[in-house]
Prior knowledge:
Blueprint: H1 11-17, H2 22-25, H3 34-49, H4 55-64, H5 71-81, E1 110-111, E2 117-126, E3 131-139, E4 145-151, H6 157-170, E5 175-178, H7 182-185, H8 187-195, E6 199-202, H9 212-224, H10 234-250, H11 262-267, E7 287-288
Parallel strand pairs: 2-5, 5-6
Antiparallel strand pairs: 1-7, 2-3, 3-4
Helix pairs in contact: 3-5, 4-5
Amino acid sequence: MIEPDHSGLSIVQQCALVSINRSAFYYRPTGESPLNLALMRLIDEAFLECPFYGARQMARHLRREGYTVGRKRVSRLMAKMGLAPIYQKPRTSTPHPQHPVYKYLLRDQEITRPNQVWCADITYIPMRRGFLYLVAVMDWATRKVLSWRVSNTMEADFCIEALEEALTAFGAPEIFNTDQGSQFTSPRFTEVLREAGVRISMDGRGRWMDNVFIERLWRSLKYECVYLHAFETGSELRAGLERWIRYYNTRRPHSALTGQTPNEAYHQIAPAPSPGHASETVPITALAA
């Protein structure tokens, strides 16, 4: 896909043309041992089910699965994955002490229409010989994934790229909600939102339920795509994610959307009627924050 020796286009230009973060192109295995990579995948699966597990409890869980592993090793791996139990701090990344944190604006607010609230989050994606990080921007009311990027670091750059892509393609939301991770509190990230006239909202520390819909997206994506495929390279992973996210947006109905797909709900298009039933417009279900 990317030709390093291309005579007319630089690597930066080629990555931009195919919407690949440059860091993903340069991705190389991280150097973790095969055992540690296996442990990281098990930790990731367990954390989806039990986001309150700290390193001590996670080590107990792994020992019950037959792995002789200590708390310090588990703690290091969880830190590398950006995971921390919900009663301590957000699970993706730690806040930056010099970055401002914004008030959570969604409490008791009814979110019923597209572009009223967007949200974003980062998650760890295991691969056969390493791992990458994925960020996604989602429309809260309709669950539509508006943009996404992968990266081999948790720097703010790939988050800013995903945000700018969503704003260009879909306009600006009224409110943008994230956790307190340093990528999202970064002045570079929040400046993009302020320039677009977007109100900034951030979850309370350790309150993963404040951004619950994108947490549910990660669960579905990992069980239905990532864990079923041992992706070898960044390009393979990106192709697999692109297929699944297209399926999720266009073909996967949601009960909370009265059977509509995210695309149908976002564009307020009713799903195809069942045989013998008249077609009718189905409104977006009102969703509580």
